[in-house]
Amino acid sequence: MKILLLGSGAREHALARALARDPQTTELVVAPGNPGTAAIATNLNIDPCIPEEVVALATQMGADLVVVGPEAPLVAGVADAVRDAGIPCFGPSAEAARLEGSKAFAKEVMAAAGVPTAEAAVCTTEAELTAALDRFGAPYVVKEDGLAAGKGVVVTDERPVALVHGRACLSRGGRVVVEDYLDGPEASLFCVCDGATVRPLAPAQDFKRLLDDDAGPNTGGMGAYSPLPWAPADLAEQVVREVAQPVVDEMARRGTSFIGLLYCGLALTSRGLRVVEFNVRFGDPETQAVLARLTSSLPELLHAAATGRLVEAPAPTWSEQAAVDVVIAAPGYPGTVTTGGAITGVEAAEELDGVHVLHAGTGTTEHRELVATGGRVLSVVALGPTVEEARSRAYEAVGRIALDGAQYRTDIAAGR
Ligand code: GLY
């Protein structure tokens, strides 16, 4: 199978690794990719958000499957264009991608599908915003109604902070969503969908705040682990039954079938399961942990979804091992990032049993030295017989990597 994978983060490096290792994959091109994917696939530097460029590349290489990593190409209609060209694509249409692109649309679909979620108010004026903040009270949950790369959500006890974020959202997009706060631990469940059938992957949990003990600003995600020993054993089945299948059915009923990855961000509250948010692509950094444990064929699963044959595909299978990944970020992240810092120790980290290192914001100099080029720089992934063992291997590996001013949390998967 010839596969074109779009994206350039650690999530795409994890996807590339799982696709490349499968004997069904005969050619793997990553566009634009990163230095990590260059080692296992062919990187081609096109803009993944320009549908014509993606279709031209997929046609030229005779791709059997296009896999879209990030949300931006989906919102730009890349999956529509690829499917229109007759090439199977794992990723939803621009219309279906509104489940992530518009928090208000997601709320509307959930209401129609009877899916449990936090009560919310969609505000278009400052008066509505302040009324909603007063109605829901602290902790305040204020969400950008649009794509924000996982950084558009502010959860705070401080009303002025909530108000400033809400005003900023209003000035950018004209709408902001204020929600009821959901108590209880959060979990991420990725569901592979072909428009009708839903296949869950293994549950994971990510750590969205920059600093230990869930302090500091929200980020794209600073680490993750899978499985979740504390969660109900039937969590995946419950989420498919109560959340993913009703949403996929509702999207089909609307004529906007959901083909791709429905990422269910969930809170396991004292009142039961609630949806926090949907994303329409694999999550980052959860993918790095989830795919480290996948023992069945990823290309077969994604191709079956892209061609409407998921019902015939075998269910994914999983290693008994646990996986933990720790994100190393550049100085300044998630604000203004200092790039260009030299990175050393990646090979030494990978010498450790069960460890691999995934690239995100990295580049190489003319002297072939690895340097930081973005906010989240590396994901250090470790497998181990328990979450605790995987965690300790991951941190031993992190300790072997040097980047001046690097930021990482020391409590990823602690006490799990
Ligand atoms: N893990 C958060 C995200 O992928 O948006």
Please give the share of residues in helix.
Answer: 25-40%
Count of beta strands:
22
Rg measurement, Å? 20 Å
- What are the segments in which pLDDT stays under 50 over at least 5 consecutive residues? none
Bound molecule kinds, no repeats = glycine
Main sheet characteristics: 5 strands, parallel
Structure annotation, total helices: 14
Question: What portion of the residues fall into strands of 2 or more residues?
Answer: 25-35%
Which structural class matches the secondary elements?
Answer: alpha+beta
End-to-end C-alpha gap: 38 Å
Q: Sum up the overall morphology in one term.
A: globular
Spatial order of strands in the largest sheet: 3-2-1-4-5
Overall mean pLDDT stands at 96
In short:
This protein is an alpha+beta fold and 416 residues long.
Structural overview:
- The chain has a five-stranded parallel β-sheet with strand order 3-2-1-4-5, sandwiched between helices. A five-stranded antiparallel β-sheet has the order 12-15-18-22-19.
- With 416 residues, the protein is of the alpha+beta class.
- The model has no long low-confidence stretch (mean pLDDT 96).
- It has helices at residues 10-20, 35-38, 51-60, 71-75, 78-84, 98-101, 103-113, 126-136, 159-173, 235-253, 286-292, 298-306, 346-350, 387-399, and strands at 2-7, 27-32, 42-43, 65-68, 89-90, 120-123, 140-144, 153-156, 176-179, 186-194, 198-200, 205-206, 209-211, 215-218, 223-226, 259-269, 272-279, 322-329, 355-359, 362-364, 370-372, 376-384.
- The chain is globular.
- Bound molecules: glycine.
- Glycine binds at residues 150, 206, 221, 279, 283-284, 286.
